[in-house]
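Title: Comparing notes on inverse folding

I've been comparing how different people in this forum approach sequence design from structure. To keep things fair, I'm posting one structure and asking everyone to reply with a full sequence. Here's the target:
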């Protein structure tokens, strides 16, 4: 494990399960803080309506964040949930109310554009 830690340059951040009621605002705040940390920017600069790619987050980073989010929520989520819901606002809304949001897919993305 130490070799792996050296390869990625740091030890994996320990994620704790949320406490109290799980709300859309709580998920948004967790995502804002986590994305700010990964993107190395102040949380105030994280716009919840910007695509994750605008913060320089590639698919590997989003896969890692999805895994951390799963630990925070204490429930399984799809590894590609951030692909289907590519902003903090969309993702947090989906996680609270899965039936309320239509995922992005090839039919809803304009030709030549992508989620990342």
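Reply #1:
Here's my take.
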């Amino acid at each position: 494990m130490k070799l792996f830690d050296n390869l990625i340059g740091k030890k994996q951040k320990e994620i704790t399960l949320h406490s109290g009621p799980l709300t859309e605002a709580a998920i948004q705040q967790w995502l804002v803080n986590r994305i700010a940390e990964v993107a190395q920017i102040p949380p105030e600069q994280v716009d919840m309506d910007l695509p994750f790619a605008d913060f320089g987050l590639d698919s590997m980073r989003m896969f890692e964040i999805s895994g951390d989010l799963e630990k925070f929520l204490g429930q399984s989520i799809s590894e590609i949930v951030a692909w289907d819901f590519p902003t903090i606002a969309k993702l947090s809304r989906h996680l609270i109310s899965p039936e309320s949001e239509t995922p992005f897919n090839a039919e809803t993305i304009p030709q030549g554009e992508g989620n990342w």
